[in-house]
Specification:
It is a multi-pass membrane protein. This protein is mainly α. The protein is 71% helix and 0% strand. The longest helix has 27 residues, at 270-296.
């Protein structure tokens, strides 16, 4: 066959350029933007948002009626750096299973947007920066020690040991997500006047609220992505247990969460008390509905409980924050007058 492309005055024919089948290379600015977004994605921003929601009420409750704005901002930045470090190092370790799970296949390491070595260095730098920030700027080396313990526990204990070996992974591994409360409490109490009680028992209650909240929150999500976890070889509870058994445990942990919020009522005012009871009843009812639906064999949407659990924790902590900022008389103090 002859080329039918017209030629000029009998000259040689010119064929149109052949397509390589590959997309045109991105511009330098587009590549730079993609790299920046990839590094941001390594830190799991949505997860960090939740951690910061837990940190703020702890700082306000630690010194009721006072807002130490400078310390709050310093702690939020330091806590963000620490959480970003833990999440980045978690992605480095989990890069192999992220590639086979649909929910995580677009993560930076899974799609080779960032090299494992670069991510590792990035995570370590974030962790060191977090400790120095809290120790030198927030002036709380206790908070810095808590951050180091959190990163080590999340990476070495949860990610490398628990996650791939036991269905109780999120129960014990979830302790890492409770640590922002202790970090925040340490920063504020390290700056309290001498003689003012530190009330660490309240920090422990806040820790336990998040500890018991984590399993129903995570298991509801795992029910939705059960096949993903199964394909990756991660023994999340919905993978190794029937849906009826999982929802039963979700209900039990939901009750434990709500009861823990009640333990803090004596140290707070009426706003928190109303919020803890009202939102708690809402959370419990929805957990029971999920369990009842599974038992009846009807189609359920566990992702709805996952989203609701986020809203529940945020609502309870917002109520506590408002209560603490206003410096309302605590219920224990009010009843002591009678």
């Amino acid at each position: 066959m002859h080329d039918s492309t017209p030629t000029r005055s009998g000259g040689p024919s010119v064929s149109p350029p052949e397509s390589s089948g590959r997309p045109a290379p991105a511009s330098g600015s587009a590549r730079a933007a993609d790299v920046v977004m990839s590094y941001i994605a390594l830190t799991k921003p949505r997860v960090i948002e939740l951690l910061l929601v837990a940190a703020i009420p702890a700082m306000l409750q630690a010194d009721r009626g006072q807002v130490h704005l400078g310390l709050v901002l310093l702690t939020l930045v330091g806590g963000w750096l620490g959480a970003a470090s833990a999440n980045t190092l978690n992605m480095v370790v989990d890069a192999d299973i992220d590639k086979v799970m649909k929910r995580t296949e677009r993560r930076p390491l899974a799609r080779h947007a960032v090299t494992p070595r670069a991510a590792l260095v990035f995570g370590l730098v974030l962790g060191a920066s977090s400790m120095l920030w809290l120790g030198l700027l927030a002036q709380s080396w206790l908070a810095a020690a808590f951050i180091l313990a959190t990163i080590c526990f999340y990476v070495f204990v949860y990610t490398m040991i628990l996650k791939r070996r036991t269905a109780q992974n999120v129960v014990w591994g979830g302790a890492a997500g409770c640590m922002p409360v202790l970090v925040s409490w340490a920063v504020i109490t390290d700056h309290l006047p001498e003689g003012q009680p530190h009330n660490w028992w309240q920090a422990i209650v806040l820790f336990l609220i998040i500890f018991f909240w984590t399993p129903p929150h995570t298991w509801a999500l795992a029910m939705r992505y059960k096949e993903d976890y199964k394909a990756a070889g991660v023994p999340m509870l919905p993978v190794v247990m029937s849906a009826e058994g999982v929802t039963r445990r979700i209900t039990l942990y939901t009750w434990a969460t709500v009861l823990c919020t009640f333990a803090l009522i004596p140290a707070a005012g009426w706003i928190y008390a109303v919020g803890a009871v009202g939102f708690g009843v809402w959370f419990i009812v929805m957990a029971h509905r999920l369990e009842a639906g599974v038992r009846r064999g009807v189609e359920v949407k566990p992702l709805k409980l996952f989203i609701l659990s986020n809203n529940y924790l945020a609502a309870v902590f917002v109520a506590l924050s408002i209560d603490a900022v206003l410096g309302l008389e605590t219920l224990s103090g009010a009843f002591s007058l009678f």
